[in-house]
Design a protein that fits this description.
Two copies of one chain form a homodimer. Chain A is an alpha+beta fold. Chain A contains 25 helices and 13 strands. In chain A, about 55% of the residues lie in helices and about 10% in strands. In chain A, the strands form four sheets. In chain A, strands 3, 4, 5, 7, 8 and 11 form a six-stranded mixed sheet that branches. The longest helix of chain A is centred in the middle third of the chain and has 39 residues.
Amino acid sequence: MTKSLSTNPANDVVIDGKKYNTFTEPPKAMAAERAKASFPVREMTYYLDGGEKVTEYNEAVWEQLERAPAFDNTDYYDVCGDHELLRARTLAKVGAIAEIVTDGRSERDIQKVLSFVSVIDPGAMTRIGVHFGLFLNGVRGSGTSEQFNYWVGEGAANLSNFFGCFCMTELGHGSNVAGVETTATFDRNTEEFVINTPTIAASKWWIGGAAHTATHGLVFARLIVDGKDYGVKNFVVPLRDRNTWNLMPGVSIGDIGKKMGRDGIDNGWVQFSNVRIPRLFMMMKYAKVSKDGKVTQPPLAQLAYGALISGRVSMVYDSYTWARRFLTIAIRYACCRRQFSSSPGGLETKLIDYTFHQRRLLPRLAYAYAMNAGSAELYKIYFAATDRLASTKPTDKEGLQSAIDDVKELFSVSAGLKAFSTWGTAQIIDECRQACGGLGYSGYNGFGQGYNDWVVQCTWEGDNNVLTLSAGRSLIQSGLAIRKGEHVGAAASYLKRELNAKLNGRSLEDLNVLIDGWEHVSAVGISQAVDRYVELEKEGVSQTEAFERLSQQRYDVTRVHTRMYLIKSFFENLKTASPALQPVLTDLALLFALWSIEIDASVFLRYGFLEPKDISTITVLVNKYTGKVREQAIPLTDAFNQSDFVINAPIGNYNGDVYNNYFAKTKAANPPINTHPPYYDSVMKPFFTRKFNDDPDLSALEEEEAEENE
Amino acid sequence: MTKSLSTNPANDVVIDGKKYNTFTEPPKAMAAERAKASFPVREMTYYLDGGEKVTEYNEAVWEQLERAPAFDNTDYYDVCGDHELLRARTLAKVGAIAEIVTDGRSERDIQKVLSFVSVIDPGAMTRIGVHFGLFLNGVRGSGTSEQFNYWVGEGAANLSNFFGCFCMTELGHGSNVAGVETTATFDRNTEEFVINTPTIAASKWWIGGAAHTATHGLVFARLIVDGKDYGVKNFVVPLRDRNTWNLMPGVSIGDIGKKMGRDGIDNGWVQFSNVRIPRLFMMMKYAKVSKDGKVTQPPLAQLAYGALISGRVSMVYDSYTWARRFLTIAIRYACCRRQFSSSPGGLETKLIDYTFHQRRLLPRLAYAYAMNAGSAELYKIYFAATDRLASTKPTDKEGLQSAIDDVKELFSVSAGLKAFSTWGTAQIIDECRQACGGLGYSGYNGFGQGYNDWVVQCTWEGDNNVLTLSAGRSLIQSGLAIRKGEHVGAAASYLKRELNAKLNGRSLEDLNVLIDGWEHVSAVGISQAVDRYVELEKEGVSQTEAFERLSQQRYDVTRVHTRMYLIKSFFENLKTASPALQPVLTDLALLFALWSIEIDASVFLRYGFLEPKDISTITVLVNKYTGKVREQAIPLTDAFNQSDFVINAPIGNYNGDVYNNYFAKTKAANPPINTHPPYYDSVMKPFFTRKFNDDPDLSALEEEEAEENE
């Protein structure tokens, strides 16, 4: 095993007079990259986190998670394949998280803990998230304060023999919540509601926590009083006897079974066969049913779905935390892995030094920085809007209407950001995996499990396509409103601009010029869609049909508007950074804006901001800024401040000792001591030693036949 | 359970006077779609397969697979999570496949069987494929006929106590095969080679079949004779004692463990500690080492890597078979699933009737038809080139050089098609999954397992990015050759055209006009890259560096050229179809070409074929043709002729009874009889019944302290 490596001279590297080879050189390469830092890395962490205090707070949370025995992740990826063990482990993590989140933290801080958990074990995050984020938030949002306190008293605040699930989706109804078919029929005689599932398609489906964990469900059902359908309301329905864990009478629950990812959650289906609950288990903050069956409808129907918005907002932040994790793995690996040399027998080139490899990873590193800024901006809008809604009395209809307007703007902005950020990160995970070649396909580097766990984000809590089309409708409506001189929200106010901008010889390396360009193409795209809408209206086409025919345009305007919003957020946000950070952040911001133009070049050409020759310039500039960012690639990923525990991928560890780390992990997970496969005797040996083409010995039969014929 | 559905009037459908609801209507919807067929579906199957006889042959293969007990797929997705069971099952399938492929079929027919297996169990396909496709093909390609016959005699032809693996990739070397570090040092005294692994990074890695199955490996190692390195050659090395299944002396093997998909294959790592093999175990068709250590180098180095090309070619066909499977699932589901109604209380709309949903699925249906045509074209080139190579004597250097030129054209064309087809299908699987909402995320509808199993195709046997850049270099070289008046292959001959084409008022619904446009943008893109290359050359930039700087351009020209090639193949191929099929195939071809322009609009604008206003027309036309194809969507997917066994996704079954099928599958896989989670006593109960904030009773301590203080 001591044969000299001179047989492949491409692998001889001399550092400080000492020889290194393929196997021993990577950590040296990593250290050299780290030494290139042109900015204070720790300060960048503060910038990304939102300040030194936040960083310290975050580190305390991470430390607590990393120390918790339940969170040991040595065998995480192998356990992910073992359904039953995984679910037991996940519940143990729920217990560890519960300790942290019930210690009196604010809602924002609880969300942050859950976001962190989501990066290291999304199943555990979701499993506890359905209780705190959906059930308990739902009860808080749609129940009276007395009702909320009642369920807290039952154990809901600290999971004391209590676990809530969120029974909204049905097998036959997902995005169209208003169409769910489960019924809650008021029985005036007993002052009860009768909850019922009319067909299999009306079974509650995908209900996280239902199969094993939940004692109660917040059930979305159609309120029926005296034969009249009052639409969908929320009801708390006990699902299990908390002493015996048996199902309550009339409740049927089954396991949804295998999923694409997140098998740690016990998603279930639930059917109700005329299950009776007390009248006061209906959530009555806005809608009410009195003892004698008098129905009060809520002032605004949208109030019923508020619990979902916080999830949507946090998914933009999660898009950032997931993207940074996988980008760090791929970029670190690219700085250590060498492949091909440009001269025969010459030193092989690091992946990160190839132009195309830089282009695959580094604009996406800039994208992660942009998502971080966009998420910070979105959280501001979110807390302003929800605080206002919470502080408005349920009886103050005018105040509510005004608060709802804020929430609508929040819905529209968050819809585009949620959709394109979750898609963006799915694409980043996939590109990073491919950038690691075969080692990206290995289970131990996390991409496979990560991708499968991640992509559900594109579907749940607002399917991305549905959200995108909905945000596109809002943008067109804002464009219409501006033409009519009506008020529009802050995010759409740029639509008032003139539509005649051109590059006109200005520099494409000027942030303000790039913002001008992005605002221009977004505004023109929306304006053209408005033109078409007005035309269709004049032709007598209904509003619904007009928007239907503009489907592709709705998608396109949301895509461009959202990208513009992210670029502007990044540009605004970087102004708050310390001077030492500004140069590298400006490079990142320019790279992100320029690369985004390269991808969406056709709108810049169609809407006249750029001319064909400019596109070649854009490509040259993207090369230039990927080259600049490449020099700071390791410091920029180090600034994410993720421990090896968070990374959980041996080729992405801090020390850069990629082959050693990965080989050790593989060997520990699969000790090579067992050379015989366990199915050798049962399957393998019988196959390999089977007999071939034995002609049967028919002589006895033939003799007999001959004798008979005699 | 018999509550009327009138509570949600959106779900009342009346067909022939009978009422149906969410649950009972889907199969009726499917039947109605099927009745719309405007063409003979069976004839379309013949067209797709390449003739009636081929269809019948294919059906016989499918029947044989579906009947084989080893291929029962009832619990396929659940078993995929159970490493050990999965591998035993996969080996049983290898046995069933071996029966079929060793019955005297042609190489093409064996490839087809393996392609079919890949759709239903890619792990089984790959597991047997490493023996037949890589080991045995490798021995055939690089060994003498005596050597090939020797290994056949040892059992290699029919897996008689013999299984070969392909030890090429190392932990530290993947794409750069010429850089592998394993050594094969000739020992003149014993007439043996000594195979050795110098460092951990030189361990053979990802070796399919090594961990459990392989008795022999075809090892890529550097030939060292008298201290001189002659580059990488192939050697057969025995890995296991075939009687005891113990590892041979000096051979270390371990399991690579968990992967992103394909856990049914026992990929392993292999290290050699001075393992000795007879001289004649070196493959000596082209390279040779005589008894006394005289080395003969092969006439052309590329001859060593020929075994990989067939895999690359078959991946284009596999891209089609995988795409059609997932498209069928998503399109069938879209024809049965209803969501939202355009009027309050009105019937909900089928997903397939939404413009945007059509746009997500139907251009990709057209893409699948195009890939089928592209694959047929590629197979023609492949068989011509490989037959020629095989029939040229190893000593005929001139004949070999000419045959190699054909193979080079094959490499270039197949590189682009392999890369963009495998990426295209990965994207199709993902889009189809998302189009099925939550039910796409369920494990039982196959998308998750399918995606993970599929995407390795983007990395192995030529990483897509490496292939794309390599094909881009070839295209630029072809462009240079044309300027110098040199000969170029058939696939590049269109580069001779004039570069001044414009739409000029011609119809965008004319196939010939669209081909003109695609050829134009591809030719201009390549020509501009050639211009830039020539400039760089004049500036004194090295060839390597010039191509490096043109990385993005190389990617772009390959993307556009490959799309053009696919569109042209489709247009040519559909001319061979019967008249009854031409109208719908023409709609598909137009849709594919138009949609491709919409995606790549910027090059059509940059290179002057289209003007900005044309892009809006393209969008209108894409809407028009998705609308036309939508009417035939079910017949067009039925024509793929896939049984429910192949589909293996209850929401994609032929009968369209989506909810019933899916609920039954979920329930069968997870019988709801067990209401208590298996970890209730060990994890759940202790957590839920833990004590909170019990202030400890310190009275005894306090008394004592008080006493002491007295």
